[in-house]
Design the sequence.
């Protein structure tokens, strides 16, 4: 049994047995297709209908121009948009789309939820700068969708992928979007709880009746959660007179707790950090959640978020200036500090007094490991009294600690040679960009450690040249959000002249990016962290 697949530049036949199944859902199954022109995914519907196929044909004909940029497996997919139909015995049963590698792109939830972020082994702590950049990229991509008459409708964080290194975003499940082609609307058929516009809830409107207002409102919810540590804008403390508990019921009743005027039926959750946002940001959210028909458009969000990032209106935390996740909006306190301080501390039970009985305690029953607040030692085992240290011992240990500190400081001043790094930890994304203090940009952000430039200029780059380009690319990606474009001009020109438009050995570059650039010492050398003070 074989399938006929319409790729952008060719039609091919592939045996079903040669395809790798990578997923399945209620609508269909997804297969991996490796081809000389790139890697693709095939979605095969369980029950293909004429209505589905007509919508696919319209989507293929009206594909946004910026759905993918770049070529081959190195391309950044911003929309997993249908590329062509898939047929069996002449009958259309699905479509082919760009493949989004789950190893290179993670669900937006990992950047929204602090709990999920901790569980992501290869994800560094997402700070304010990272979240703002993701928010801008998300709004920019959805804005380009709106400009050609398409709408997301079934918005939820699970339908958004984020590339941790570049912070680009990718919209998936694009075959469920509301699509327009030649003046004909092919509506969406689903939407997700907690992201349904209150107007649609109140009027019991189906997904097929919704358009841009649904996207504007739903994405405002996602941005609120992204900047407020996974807290939904309609998740508040309700008064006893409110009997409903579902978030959608709160939405329908308009129980928004974080507006400029207190709501009589709901108050903010103590963990919320909305009081540490700039007034302009709060005003945008208040518009969305007090008057959904006037929710900010994607272009409004892009303009505002760009102004924050380009004007560098974020700064280090005053209390923890070296903590990568402790950043703040200029003129406001640190959200991370506030969030951590407002978490409920675990209750610690006091250890009972030492029993007088000399009988040994009963062996405790085995129990699963939990997050219990009980001390790890048995209650009736006394803690030995601490002995007082003599003066001579204090002097000895004081001198030893002093010399160890001096040795550690001197060892840290020696920057490792990047070319000597071969065996390092597993790959992790680069540290999120750390913004400057409230003053003007400082040239000390540039590291001074030399990297040997490429020797040859042939068509095929040698490993040394690829390494230099990869290191410079990493350095520029880090610096572009922390210093002005003028300061980056020279390094950009040098990189472009030596690295851009040259054929890179993808396997060598991938090894360098995923192995060498995962080394914390090299990352600090490239980012010049040691020079910040």
Sequence:
């Amino acid at each position: 049994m074989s399938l006929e697949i319409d790729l952008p530049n060719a039609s091919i036949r592939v045996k079903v047995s040669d395809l790798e199944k990578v997923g399945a859902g209620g609508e269909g199954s997804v297969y991996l297709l490796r081809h000389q022109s790139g890697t693709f995914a095939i979605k095969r519907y369980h029950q293909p209908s004429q209505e589905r196929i007509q919508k696919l044909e319209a989507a293929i004909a009206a594909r946004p121009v910026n759905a993918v940029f770049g070529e081959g497996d190195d391309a950044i997919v911003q929309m997993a948009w249908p590329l062509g139909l898939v047929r069996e015995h002449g009958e259309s049963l699905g479509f082919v789309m760009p493949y989004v590698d789950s190893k290179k792109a993670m669900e937006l939830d990992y950047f929204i939820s602090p709990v999920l972020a901790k569980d992501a082994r290869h994800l560094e702590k997402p700070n304010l700068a990272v979240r703002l950049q993701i928010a801008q990229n998300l709004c920019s991509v959805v804005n380009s969708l709106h400009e050609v008459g398409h709408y997301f409708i079934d918005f939820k964080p699970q339908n958004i992928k984020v590339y941790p290194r570049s912070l680009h975003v990718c919209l998936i499940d694009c075959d469920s979007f509301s699509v327009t082609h030649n003046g004909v609307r092919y509506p969406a058929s689903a939407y997700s709880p907690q992201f349904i516009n209150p107007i649609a809830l109140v009027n019991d409107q189906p997904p097929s009746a919704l358009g841009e207002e649904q996207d504007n409102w739903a994405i405002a919810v996602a941005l609120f959660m992204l900047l407020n540590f996974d807290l939904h804008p309609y998740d508040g403390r309700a008064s006893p007179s409110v009997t409903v508990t579902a978030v959608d019921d709160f939405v329908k009743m308009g129980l928004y707790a974080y507006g400029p005027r207190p709501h009589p039926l709901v108050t903010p959750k103590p963990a919320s950090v909305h009081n540490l946002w700039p007034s302009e940001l709060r005003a945008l959210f208040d518009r969305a959640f007090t008057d959904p028909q006037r929710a900010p458009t994607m272009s409004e969000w892009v303009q505002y978020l760009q102004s924050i990032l380009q004007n560098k209106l974020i700064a280090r935390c005053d209390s923890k200036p070296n903590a990568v996740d402790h950043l703040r909006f200029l003129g406001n306190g640190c959200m991370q500090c506030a969030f951590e301080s407002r978490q409920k501390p675990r209750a610690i039970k006091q250890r009972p007094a030492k029993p007088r009985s000399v009988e040994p305690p009963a062996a405790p029953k085995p129990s699963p490991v939990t997050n219990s607040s009980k001390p790890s030692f048995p209650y009736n085992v006394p803690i030995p009294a601490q002995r007082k240290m003599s003066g001579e011992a204090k002097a000895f240990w004081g001198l030893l600690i002093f010399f160890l500190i001096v040795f550690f400081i001197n060892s840290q001043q020696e920057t490792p040679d990047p070319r000597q790094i071969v065996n390092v930890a597993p790959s992790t994304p680069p540290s999120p960009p750390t913004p400057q203090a409230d003053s003007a940009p400082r040239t000390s952000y540039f590291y001074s450690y030399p990297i040997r430039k490429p020797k040859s200029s042939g068509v095929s780059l040698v490993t040394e040249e690829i390494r230099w380009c990869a290191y410079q690319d990493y350095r520029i990606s880090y610096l572009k959000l922390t210093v002005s474009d003028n300061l980056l001009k020279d390094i950009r020109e040098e990189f472009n002249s030596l690295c851009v438009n040259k054929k890179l050995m993808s396997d060598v570059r991938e090894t360098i990016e995923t192995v060498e650039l995962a080394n914390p010492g090299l990352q600090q050398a490239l980012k010049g962290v040691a020079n910040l003070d």
About this structure: Residues 440-531 form one domain. The two ends are 66 Å apart (CA to CA). The chain is about 30% helix and 15% strand. The longest helix spans residues 391-412.
